[in-house]
Structures are given as C-alpha cells and as structure tokens.
Design goal:
By secondary structure, this protein is mainly alpha-helical. It has one domain. Helices cover 73% and strands 4% of the residues. It has a two-stranded antiparallel sheet.
Length: 260
C-alpha cells in the first residue's frame, strides 16, 4: 500500500477522513481510561507530562506502523496452531498473540489495581503502602498498552480506507483529542473512587475481549461500549444523589447513650 496524496477536493475523501477519525476516537476510549488510571498514580505535577510524552510516543509508534502497513497486514498470517475442544483446530497469528498478551496484561493490571484500591483504607493498620509510580514506568505502560490497541485500530482503518496518508491524519487527530481529554478524565476519576472501580472493571472487560479476539471469538464492541455508557450514567446519578444527601449524624446525649 503506497503513500499517495489524497485529492482533498473530493468530498468522499473528507467523508472517509471524518469517519475514520470518529472510529479512532471511539476505539481510543479504553486507551484514555487506562492512561487516566495509570497517570493518576503519579504526583499531580507529573501527570500532564506523563500523558503528553506517553501519547506523543504512542503517536510516533502508530505512524511508524502505518508506514509499514504491508508488514502489519502480514502479521495476520498463522504462525502457531493447536487443537482445542472437540479437536477444533485454532491457528494463531502474531496479531492474535499480541492481542492475547495485551488482554492478559490488562486483566492482571486492572485486577491488581482494584486489589490495591481495596487495601488503601487499611494502610494505617500496619499494612504496607504501595510506593508511587515513577514517570518512566507510567510512560512505558502507556506506550505498551497503546501498542496493543494500535493493531486493532490500524487493521480497522485498513478495512475502511486505502490511503495511508488519510490513516496518518486520523491517527494524529485522535491522539490530539486523547491528549485534550485525558487530563479532565484523570481529574474526575481521581476525585471519585467509585468511578475508578468502574473504569478498572471496564478495562478487565476490554482485556477479556482482547483475549477472545486472540482466539478468534469476536465480541461486539458496540454492546461493550453501550454497557459502559449505561453503567457510567447510573454511576453519575449515584454520585449526584450522594452529593445532595449529606450523611446523617445522630445527636445523642450521654443519657440517651446510657439507656442504650
């Protein structure tokens, strides 16, 4: 697939570009959530730098993959095969293995984060407090997870557009939008522990979807994102309800206490 300058006077080119930008942004929702969770582990003064550097490196990585698009398409050729239930033969490509590794990483990482959140309340009872993440480790995690999501988004782009330059423009636009929204999402998630749990649970689901995709079991992402949207709306309603009803304190006298 060669790099050819598109004819921007053609309305069809703009329609393809806008459609691809929209899909890249939608596919980047889970990426933004992961970035928000990981960057939130850093001191506030370093969070913005981690997001910008991590996403900038991720953008360079994605553009590099697009420039090697023929090699990326070749990664779909089977390299490993084995028999599964009822002697069903499953052939895995490099793309499948990458999705499996990325899915397992998301499941393990999100599960450990949930476990850590549940243990935070007991930190003052003699339990060890987890050390803050370093800037380098956070940036590395952002790049690695984006690399996993890149294969999915790039192969989706190949199915829609046959011009590499349009794909590159869509990737740059989607990464810039991620940079703009990752900060507010991080601040909101950090303020609401229940939203953190919802986001981490969603990442576990995404990890399961990636593992299923690695085994050629496709799960409708429309259903996944619809469930996320519904859960988010319910949680926002709960947050609003909690903010309007302050905790009730019982004003009991000592005499009343003695009666009890």
């Amino acid at each position: 697939m060669d790099i050819i300058l598109p004819n921007f006077a053609d309305p069809g080119v703009w329609i393809s570009l806008v459609t691809l930008c929209f899909l890249e942004i939608v596919l980047g929702i889970d990426n933004v959530i992961f970035i928000s969770i990981v960057a939130g582990k850093l001191p506030e003064s370093q969070q913005r730098k981690a997001r910008i550097v991590g996403l900038s490196l991720a953008m360079i990585f994605r553009v590099g993959l697009l420039l090697c698009i023929n090699w990326i398409i070749g990664l779909t050729d089977p390299v490993v095969s084995f028999k599964w239930i009822n002697d069903m033969l499953i052939a895995l490509s490099w793309k499948d293995l990458i999705l499996l590794a990325g899915g397992i990483f998301l499941i393990v990482k999100s599960t450990l984060e949930i476990h850590h959140k549940l243990q935070e309340d007991h930190a003052g009872e003699g339990k060890t407090v987890k050390k803050p993440k370093t800037l380098t480790s956070v940036i590395l995690q952002i790049v690695l997870v984006d690399a996993v999501f890149s294969f999915d988004s790039i192969l989706t782009a190949v199915g829609l557009v046959d011009n590499v330059l349009i794909m590159i423009i869509a990737v740059i636009v989607s990464i810039i939008i991620m940079m703009l929204f990752a900060g507010p999402v991080t601040r909101i998630i950090n303020k609401q522990p229940t939203l953190q749990m919802l986001a981490l649970s969603f990442l576990i689901v995404i990890g399961v979807v990636l593992v299923a995709s690695g085994f050629h079991q496709e799960v409708s992402k429309g259903i996944i994102y619809s469930c996320l949207g519904f859960s988010l709306i319910v949680e926002l309603l709960n947050i609003r309800l909690r903010s309007r009803h302050a905790p009730v304190s019982l004003n009991t006298t000592k005499a009343d206490t003695d009666k009890l």
